[in-house]
Amino acid sequence: MIDIIAFDADDTLWQSESLYFQAQREFEELLAPYHGDNGVVDALYETEIGNLPYYGYGIKSFALSMIETAVHMSDAKIDGRDIQRIIDLAKEMLSAPVQLLDQVEEVIAALSESYPLMVITKGDLVDQEAKVARSGLASYFSAVEVVSDKTPDVYRAVLAKHHLDPGSFLMVGNSLRSDILPVVSLGAQAVHIPYHITWEHEKVPEAAGQAAEFLEIEHIGLLLELVAKLEQGAQPESQPQRT
Amino acid sequence: MIDIIAFDADDTLWQSESLYFQAQREFEELLAPYHGDNGVVDALYETEIGNLPYYGYGIKSFALSMIETAVHMSDAKIDGRDIQRIIDLAKEMLSAPVQLLDQVEEVIAALSESYPLMVITKGDLVDQEAKVARSGLASYFSAVEVVSDKTPDVYRAVLAKHHLDPGSFLMVGNSLRSDILPVVSLGAQAVHIPYHITWEHEKVPEAAGQAAEFLEIEHIGLLLELVAKLEQGAQPESQPQRT
Question: Do both A82 and A102 map to the same domain?
Answer without folding.
Answer: no
